[in-house]
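Sequence in, structure out.
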Amino acid sequence: MTAWPDSQPRVCHIRVTRKRLAILAGVFLGGGVLLLLGAIIMPHVIDQQVDSGLKEQFVVTKHEGKAWDQWYFNGKPDDAKVYKQFWVFHVTNPTEVENEGVMPKLKELGPFSYREYRKKINVDFFTENGPDGRVHAMANYTEYTWYEFDEATSGAGLKETDEVTVANVPFAAVMGLLESMPSLVQKAVEALMKGIDNERPFTTRQVHQLFWGYEDPLLVKAYDAIHALPAFLRKLVPKDMVKSAGTKVAQFQVNHTSEADAVKLAGVNTIFTGETDPKLLNIFQSFKSSRTIANWNSPELVGGTNAINFPYPLVEGANLPILIPDIFRVSFFEKLGEYECMGIKLWRYEGQPSDLYNATEFPYNSKYNQFGPEGVFNLTAQPPYAPVFLSHAHFLDAPAYGKPWWDAPEGEGVYLPPTAEEQHEKYGAWIGVEPITGATMDAHKRLQINIPLKPSPYYPKVPKLMMPVTWIEETATLNDYLAHQYKSQVGLATTMRKVIVYGGYPGGVLCLITGVVCLLVRRRLAADEKFEADEGLLKNASDISGGDHPYTQMANDHPEDPEEVRRKSFSLNNQSSA
């Protein structure tokens, strides 16, 4: 390395002048104003662009476009796959339970996984004048839903043709009705059942029959017998029995076989499209051709969404109304936290515990016949009018019914993790919603079907229990394609907005302060220069009055500062000329 000749480091001095300070002040002040204007204006521009993109993505107004493609059918290659998965509580000792009254031994089998397909058919867009005097954009449609068994996502070695033994729902329904019927009717029903083989508290069926339905001999005979009665005699039959005998098929879920089947069974749904009012996006006005949910003690108005999309953006502290067909009511999910899914922040919502409270504790639930222990939902008043009670999976939050199963020997009952957090994570029902778009990007909707098991005239030793039959999880999770699409559009715009807001305001203020500082320094520098000039004039004036030659006197006084000599000489010459 070569050193400088004097072996001293060279330092480059930049002389600060008023002109340079003026330029710097202009740059900082102008930049600060631009940053503040950008922080004020650009977020609104970005919000408008995002809102326009969301309308294009989610507001369905016609039979084409991005929103239509996403809404009308969920089976396209890039769509998030929706699965309905079943876990069955297979009874390994049914004969001992029926004849000896021992505790049933359960073996949990699953999941039996089915890919869920939903297609909107007979779609009609229209407008309607609301009671508020505004015009609302609406859509009518029928939802054609079908399921296909997916062995890849099912448990190892499980097939939908596997046989399982579970509680017999038709048998439990008839036994329940007999308790409140006159003895004459009881004898008639007993005579009816004598001609039917294999009608016991437990039944063995193939998995697909249990889920999607099978003709039950007892239901067939009851249906035929009641409908063969003359009209005047049929009026004497208890209404509950007529309702229960309204079908020959026992089933837990509906699996449409064709579009015509969907039209017959599903009816017509009406929703607000959100075109005229985004706050009503995807809200149901009617469901299955009705604006109310019948058969409760008082009618339940239809409302809420299908939990796929919500009016956006989400509002902190506001609950999400969801129409849940499985429990025939609108439930309000509340926010219980935030988490990340594939790098996207979601708000976690769960159903409120009060939905399953006893009516004494929560009087509103009296309309839903919630008069038993809390933790289960009574569906006996709803089609098919069977003694069906819903709960969270594994009797979560239902200790009155779950304890006998939780206390059973390992491998023979129902298991719950040790902590409440683990229990709700694995067996609770919750959804993850992206707050800007209102789109559900992670869903785990879980419920369990239970049948009351109790002694009957035919099987007096059967124990009295709430018998779990199956628990179901409807799940949908974001895929890589949809996650990338969100991040490259909404996510990028959101990040830019944050950078502009969080960088623009402090950056703009800092630039303004820096510009002001430059102006102050420039002003101080000008004052210093003026002071030095005035001081030099006074000094030179005193030197002239002493009679010495100006150049000689300045050279003797300041031999080390030629610049100062030159400046003062220049001042004296000017004074002499004057």
